[in-house]
Amino acid sequence: MPSYKYQAEDGDGQQVVGTVEADNLEAATETLEARSFSILSIEEEKTEGGRTAFFSNLSLSGMSRGVLRAVNVVVEGRVTDAVPSYSYKALNAEGEAVDGVVEAENVSAAINRIQDDALSVLSIDEERKLWSIKGIAQACSKIRPPDIVSKINFFRQLSMMLNGGHTLTEALVLSAEMTDKKILQNTIIDMLIQIQQGGANFSTALESKGNLFPPYVAKLLAVGERTGELPVALDRVADHMEQDSSIRSQLVNSMIYPAVIVIVALVVFTGLAVYVVPQFSDILQGLTQENLPFVTRAWLWVSNWVMSYGVAVAVLLALAVFAAIVGYQMKPGKRIIDRILLRIPFIGTNILNTAMAQMGWTMSSLLESGQNVVDSLNFVANNAGNYSISQSLLNAREAVVEGRSLGVGLRQPYIPKIVQQMCAVGERSGELEKATRGLGEFYQKRTESRIKKTMAIMEPLLILIVAGMVGFIYLGFFNAMVAVDAGFGM
Prior knowledge:
The longest helix has 58 residues, at 432-489. α10 packs parallel to α18 (432-489), α13 packs antiparallel against α14 and α14 (373-382) runs antiparallel to α15. β4 and β5 (97-103) form a beta hairpin. The chain is mainly α. The strands form two sheets. It has a three-stranded antiparallel beta sheet, with helices on one face. The chain starts with a strand and ends with a helix. The chain has four domains: 3-61; 85-126; 145-243, Type II secretion system (T2SS), domain F (Receptor-associated Protein, Up-down Bundle), CATH 1.20.81.30; 255-490, Receptor-associated Protein (Up-down Bundle). It is 67% helix and 9% strand.
């Protein structure tokens, strides 16, 4: 059992130094708290290069038990909050049988907690929650990346606490305590370890987290650390992430409603053609095609075609979608598909507007943080999302490297003239940051306005399309009944 060296204050305010044996850091802390000690510092003895030692100078008085568990878990290489639960049966002081569940590191700790409640343990067993709904939800929360709102809140909270006088270490500890996202909590604690034990900068520790944060975050924070304006850089990161998330969500939301309407209409039409129309084909068999109205003949022809070739068409469409997805992962396929997308009405315009808005916001943030034009263009180009737009921005970067102005360099395909002109004016006036930020705001508002107008037009148009499909079926059915009635009359 490991030993922990501690420094604490007793109930009389006297400082006490000593060691305590416990299964882990949390258990050691609980033991000291039970002795009415106020912990000043605690570390495991003989760490052998382990990751616990850096907490020796870290005040734990404000750290909650949940964060202590998380810290202990990361140090020991286990999954956060993977504390087993034990179901028990016991007798209370009145001799009545009670049962319940308690969380503890092991059976001994569970029994101690039960006895602390003045209960006499009769039996105790570890619960197996592998397939429970709660267990599945907890497992999913540990593998699901934190959402964009959690990341934005993390940077906002850090900025607020740094402005309030907290050190970076204290701010990170409090952030780990406040977040309910397990992966984000583990990430924060791991960054704490890199900063305190490895001597890494905050931006370097954050950059090591891979795809958890956008690439520009580490760049902006590195500049903030160099200039001594980390809180400002954190606010700038949060602002940029909010703008980026807003633009992307608007683009996605603009596609969802039409897609749902079209899919529902196709499903309804296919169901009528496959299951409803054939029910009436037997009734109409006695009539020749010449005696049937045109709408009814078209109705029957569509039904027969869907029943004969519908499955084959569906399979071909599924294969085409699969091939497009696979091809998009390859450079030649991405180049072709991205070029096609830009030429599709409405979709292409929205993609271009979104890319220009993101370019404006990102360049503005990078330039305000001290990045030069060449590096900013390179970063924006590599994160444009669309291959054709990315190539145009890379070509603009090469032109700037060769000595041409930014306005001239941006004279590329898929770069709107207003972007070229605004950047040229901003470059000449020395206010390129304001010009690019203005472009970001302009294209974001333009995207919002265009989506609202398109949705206003598309909603009644889609209703008319669905009504036309239903009307076609109804008219064919009504005319068929008239033809049948006329046939019987004859």
